[in-house]
Amino acid sequence: MPPLRIVSLLPSATEMVCALGATDELVGVSHECDFPPAVVGRPVLTSARIRHSPRSAQIDRDVRAVLKDALAVYDIDEDGLAEARPDVIVTQDLCDVCAVSLDDVVAAAKKLCRPDVRLVNLRPLRLADIWSDIRRVGAALGREAAADAVLADMDRRVADVKRRADEHLARGGTRRRVLTIEWLDPPMAGGTWMPELLELAGGAALVTKPGDHAPTLSQAELARLDPPPDVVLVKPCGFPLERTVSEADSLTSLLAPLRWPAVQQGDVWIADGNAFFNRPGPRIVDSLEILAACVHPQVFADLAQRHAGSFERFEARRA
User: Among the four 258, 277, 282, 305, which has the fewest Cβ within 10 Å?
Assistant: First the structure.
């Protein structure tokens, strides 16, 4: 049997395909697929309609304007997709702001005039969904054993973090209250799987519950948070660490006026939201380890060292 021809239209799915050992079978990726390094240079089959902007507020306005006009945020290169001749297309319908819409993918797939093309649609809201999606991709690629191995390693690492957090709490440690921030301007609180990650890491999520979509919060709503956060983690969707650092002024303006313990005690952290947290694939466990290092730095100093360069402390107080 010849090798499958796989197209992945979102970064997390590309990471799944590669983790399952099918990197060489990838014949097309999205414009945001950048990991592992071996995928760079593959045919790119999507593009963004919104212009590049250095400020998160302008990006938000541009996205909302496109959606208001009932337009897609992303385009599919239909000619490129036809040339790729895929057997399997992996896509999603969780968020039209994050990747191409499912409707557009379905329409493009129909134009291929190949009824045997398999469409694998991912829609993760909880951690269990991510695990299930890895199994589904493994099944679609005929790599069930590889999926089992990937998930076994993920389970082992998750269990290690949970065990250490539980032991810390049993010794009298505090389950610290944590606010995760998904977008800078306007500020949005992290939802979906973030509350579950926080529970595993020995923290407690503020604002959202497992599976919730990210809500937008006003400055007044942030000021009224009761209880206030002991820890803040900022990891804007799609922003690498240096991109968030470039908007340090916006983040300082947002947080400095707040009388939160996290701000007053210097427990504000920024992390790579492009590589971690917002990619529901195998590196969600790396995200858990980074989160644990932020919530309980003394307990998880080894994980902080392992992921050095992917997150850092942020001084939110004005001088």
Answer: 305
Q: CATH number of the domain that 290 lies in?
A: 3.40.50.1980
Domain count, the chain: 2
Alpha helices per DSSP H over the chain: 11-19, 56-68, 78-84, 102-110, 127-140, 144-170, 194-200, 219-223, 241-245, 248-255, 261-264, 284-295, 301-306
Looking up tokens 């902007």 gives 53
pLDDT score, position 49 = 75
Q: Please check whether residue 161 lies inside any domain of the structure.
A: no
Residue 165 lies in a domain: no
Q: What is the pLDDT of residue 67?
A: 61
Judge if 250 and 190 occupy the same domain. yes
User: Which residues in the chain show pLDDT less than 50?
Assistant: 70, 319
Q: What local confidence, expressed as pLDDT, does residue 94 receive? A: 73
Cis, bond preceding 186 (omega within 30 deg of 0): yes
| Range of the structural domain that residue 217 is part of | 173-313
Is this model's pTM higher than 0.90 or not? yes
116 and 190 both lie in a single domain: no
Length of the chain equals 319
- Comparing CA positions, the residue from 135, 112, 260 lying closest to residue 120 is 135
- Return the CA Rg of the chain: 20
Residues sharing a CB contact under 8 Å with residue 225, sequence separation 6 or more, in sequence order: 179, 206, 207, 260
Asked if residue 302 and residue 199 are part of one domain, the reply reads: yes
